[in-house]
Amino acid sequence: MAQRTTTILVVDDDERVAQACADLFGRDQVEVATVGSGKAALERIRRARPDALVTELDLPGMDGLTLLSQVRRMHPDMVCIVLTGVPSARSASRALRLDADDYIIKEADSADQLRRSLRRALRQRKREVEVKQLLVELAELNEAFLEEMGNLHKANLELEQRLAPPMSRTGAWKMLVVDDEAPTVELLRALLTNQGFEVDGANSGAEARQLFGEYAYDLVLTDKNLGDANGVDLIKEIHAVHPETRVLLMTGFATVESAVDAMHYGAVGYLRKPFQDLDVVIERVDEALDDIKDEREKARYNYQLRTRNAEFVNRFKLLKTKLVTLQGDP
User: Fold this and answer.
1) Where is average pLDDT lowest: 50-64, 106-120, 239-253, 294-308?
2) Same domain, yes or no, for 205 and 322?
3) Could you tell me if 119 and 267 lie in one domain?
4) What does the pLDDT average to over 161-179?
5) pLDDT over 80 at 325, yes or no
């Protein structure tokens, strides 16, 4: 069976970028189209959606991040990679919030980095699409199963309601603020507590490790530089213990590398210190909590689906066993 051609749309006038994309899997397996503006890119995407978008940050009329924002609304699961020869912490942070798959600085070896990043992102998005498709197929099979087992349908629905877990968590959202500056910890604790959250504070990496080793936090806000620890390393340590915990990275020395590292190691946002507008902090926290709610809703659905089918299959097997037993009796 012939392998499907991967389509990549490049929004850049740099021929090296298009060449790097064309060399991704081999010319027979990749189709690369190039346009010179965000407007032209949107028109082409509306006509035929590509598998991946590679866009320069500096574009005429519409910058690459504005293009990324519009593409994300149209196709949330499309691979999108941002390129720039003039990097900044602000643009890297915004790319992170817009769910860019990578933020690549144009350098001598950036073509190889782009190829590696595209391969990784395309594989990941393909897995996500396959998982979604499998869930759809599983749901369809489940409905067919329920129809075929009509005499047990009513009992199954009652069983589902009785076994389903609570629709939402109980109690306040639990958060941890980590910063080696005590006034910053106290400021954020007061701000977040006033929003109704349950907040712990830590002034070092060691103290943070002890706390997230004992408690499962919904959200952690950690400084990039902690004196005895690195905030990016702390993200990896937190996720090793509690993969579901969201992390916001804070720093007073914003760099492109910090923003990109935060994205690669699982941070869901980036906060610049000092906090000139505390409403921005609340906005980032609310965005992270919305993500958590969405993930838990998906997990609840999967639980209900698995539980309903498992219980139904067990009841069917029990009835079948009883039927075989009855047929064997004299």
Assistant:
1) 294-308
2) yes
3) no
4) 66
5) no
Range of the domain at 226: 151-330
Query: Does one domain contain both 221 and 293?
Result: yes
pLDDT score recorded for residue 309? 59
Domain count, the chain: 2
- For residues 169 and 109, state if they share a domain: no
263/241 Cα distance (integer angstroms): 19
Q: Which of 112-121, 137-146, 317-326 has the lowest mean pLDDT?
A: 317-326
What's the per-residue H, E or C state across the chain?
A: CCCCCEEEEEECCCHHHHHHHHCCCCCCCEEEEEECCHHHHHHHHHHCCCCEEEEECCCCCCCHHHHHHHHHHHCCCCEEEEEECCCCHHHHHHHHHCCCCEEEECCCCHHHHHHHHHHHHHHHHHHHHHHHHHHHHHHHHHHHHHHHCHHHHHHHHHHHHHHCCCCCCCCCCEEEEECCCHHHHHHHHHHHHHCCCEEEEECCHHHHHHHHHHCCCCEEEEECECCCCEHHHHHHHHHHHCCCCEEEEEECCCCHHHHHHHHHCCCCEEEECCCCCHHHHHHHHHHHHHHHHHHHHHHHHHHHHHHHHHHHHHHHHHHHHHHHHHHHCC
Whether residues 168 and 270 share a domain: the answer is yes
- Claim to verify: residue 87 and residue 201 sit in the same structural domain: no
Has residue 20 got a pLDDT over 80? no
Same domain, 114 and 206: no
Are residues 165 and 120 part of one domain? Answer: no
